[in-house]
Amino acid sequence: MKYFLSGLIAVGLSIAAMPSFAADARNVTVVNETGYAIKFLGFNAPDDGLDEWDNELDKVLQNQTSTYVEFDEDDEGCVWNIRVDWQNYDESVLWKNVNLCKMTALRLRYDPGTKTTSFLAE
Questions:
Q1: Beta strands across the sheet bearing 28-33
Q2: Is the Cβ–Cβ distance between 46 and 80 less than 8 Å?
Q3: Which residues does UniProt assign to the signal peptide (predicted)?
Q4: Which long-range contacts link 73-81 to residues 24+ away (Cβ below 8 Å)?
Q5: 112 Cβ neighbours under 8 A, 6+ residues apart
Q6: 10 Å Cβ neighbour count for 118?
Q7: Helices (H), the chain
Q8: Cα–Cα–Cα angle for 79, 80, 86, nearest 5°?
Q9: CA–CA separation, 111 and 120 (whole Å)
Q10: How much is the pLDDT for 1?
Q11: What is the pLDDT along the chain (122 residues), one digit of tens a residue?
């Protein structure tokens, strides 16, 4: 029994000493519930201006599918601008100053009656 307890203590100490691999608070799952395909999904910091974007999608994000966006350690801050471009339309949607640290998912929605794209944060 003495060796068993010593082993448990050693395992517990080694786990406590391991570096934390927690997900970045800004990482977010984007769910397309708009009814339309999305060809571009970009995030940029408010200080970067609205001309500097990187597409987070490897392929078109079809309706009723999702993608997980991970931020790099070099990225700073919780507040980001988000841009969406549609596959078959020359229009973009832009949301400014979205606090990604307060959510884990963005559900993109489109209301054809008002022709408005919005998101539901979870």
A1: 66-69, 28-33, 105-111, 116-121
A2: yes
A3: 1-22
A4: 73/24, 75/26, 75/45, 76/45, 77/45, 78/25, 78/26, 78/102, 79/45, 79/46, 80/26, 80/43, 80/44, 80/45, 80/46, 81/43, 81/44, 81/45, 81/46, 81/48, 81/50
A5: 35
A6: 13
A7: 2-17
A8: 150
A9: 13
A10: 54
A11: 555 444 445 444 444 444 444 568 899 999 999 999 999 999 999 988 888 899 999 999 999 999 999 998 888 899 999 999 999 999 999 999 999 999 999 999 999 999 999 999 99
pLDDT of residue 16: 43
Which token pair is 68?
A: 């997980």
In degrees rounded to 5, what are phi and psi of residue 30? -105, 120
Contacts of 3 (CB under 8 A, 6+ apart): none
Take residue 17 and report the two structure tokens written for it: 């000493």
Unique residue bearing structure tokens 């060809």: 39
C-alpha dist (Å) from residue 64 to 6, 14, 44, 58: 51, 42, 24, 16
